[in-house]
Amino acid sequence: MSETDELTRLCSALEESAGLLDIPCSRERIRPVLAAYEDMLSQAMIAFRVTSAEDDEGELDCRVLFRRDVDPYGIASSKGFIAADDHPVGELLSDIQQRCPVDSYGIDFGVVDGFKKIWAFFPDGDFQPLSRLAEMPSMPRALTENAGFFFRYGLEDRVGLIGIDYHGRTVNVYFGKLPDECLEPEAIRSMHREIGVPEPSDQMLQLCAQSFGLYFTLSWDSWNIQRISFSSITQDPMSFPVRFGSRIEDFVKNFRYGVDDPKMVHAAVKSTGEEYYKIQAYYRWRPATVNLTSADSGE
């Protein structure tokens, strides 16, 4: 199959999946992003993501993960997906590349909102210490200000992935290979209390206890942690002891790609107090392409 056929097929799959959610999907809007990264599509792991978050219910996101010697920021910038300015978010990926071993990359875009994020994955098992990340001049100072929190829960040397949201101007810091005590119910409640967000409901607490990783969202505008999310993987999200809402459940039941592949489930609480879920279903599942064990998660 040629790259052009690959791109066309993916566009069709996005249109079909958006239709399940009654979300408008214009090929003219999604094709430029896919075309910019077209050389990576045939070997990429590709997932579609839907959330119950109130401010994102009218969106279907696509995540493309690839291992290749490529400059994802340079491509996005040259195509106008990321506006050039003097905000430190524009320097963060370069700082990461200079100081950390990057094994693979990813991008996120929405069928409605367009290009959103770039991900930098560290090699499998080569977790990075918070101290190295905190040294980066472009990293939000919230990471340093909350160092004591991360140390108390044994997370100081377990960073497997960094996600950069260029339009929201936030950073997701993902932790893998969690200490067992992090998944104790009281520890989960304590983490939520310490960062000033509501404790998870009983149903969310049960899902969090089954997680393989978690992430925190930081911004340049506040020293507070903006969001906490636990990530789980399952063949059947409906087997979890939670209700995701009819919108997500209909999507999972009717999504016809990668039916037998695992699904990623994220349970999150925002600083606003909103509790929500996100499900990532795979259009193409290729676990060897990127380091899933350390962190394909996220928001």
Descriptive report:
The protein is built from 12 helices and 10 strands. By secondary structure, it is an alpha+beta fold. It has one domain (3-295). Strand 5 and strand 6 (170-176) form a beta hairpin.
Secondary structure topology:
Layout: H1 3-20, H2 27-36, H3 38-41, E1 45-51, E2 61-66, H4 72-78, H5 89-99, E3 104-110, E4 114-121, H6 130-134, H7 142-145, H8 147-152, E5 159-165, E6 170-176, H9 185-194, H10 202-208, E7 213-219, E8 227-234, H11 246-254, E9 263-270, E10 275-284, H12 292-295
Antiparallel strand pairs: 1-2, 1-10, 2-3, 3-4, 4-5, 5-6, 6-7, 7-8, 8-9, 9-10
- Figure out the total of helices: 12
What would the principal axes of the Cα set say about the shape?
globular
- The secondary structure category is alpha+beta
Strand content range: 25-35%
Q: Show unreliable segments.
A: none
Mean of the pLDDT scores?
92
Which percent range fits the helix content? 25-40%
Q: Please outline the major beta sheet.
A: 10 strands, antiparallel, barrel
Termini gap: 32 Å
Strand order of the largest sheet: 1-2-3-4-5-6-7-8-9-10
Number of domains: 1
> What radius of gyration results from the CA coordinates?
18 Å
Q: In sequence order, what are the helices and strands, one letter per element?
A: HHHEEHHEEHHHEEHHEEHEEH
Total beta-strand segments = 10
Tags for this model:
299 residues; 12 helices; alpha+beta
Structure summarized in a few sentences:
This is Aromatic prenyltransferase Orf2. With 299 residues, this protein is α+β, with helices and mostly antiparallel strands.
